[in-house]
Write a structure and sequence with these properties.
three-stranded antiparallel sheet, single chain, about 60 residues, alpha+beta
Length: about 60
């Protein structure tokens, strides 16, 4: 199964939001680093998921 790397963000109120999906972990990590440099700190993390599950969530 194809893998995707999801980048997630949690805001100050505990809300969790999908930031993006990436085919390579390095791309997800680069975006995480970029977003973490912002003045307003948020909590970011990467989840490895299979592509079939990710597509099911979108529908």
């Amino acid at each position: 199964m194809a893998q995707v790397f999801e980048l997630w963000r949690q805001d100050d109120n505990g809300g969790r939001f999908l930031v993006g999906r990436y085919s390579r972990r390095a791309e997800a990590e680069a975006k995480l680093v970029e977003l973490s440099r912002g003045a307003h700190k948020q909590f970011y993390w990467i989840v490895e998921a299979d592509l079939a599950r990710a597509k099911d969530i979108e529908e």
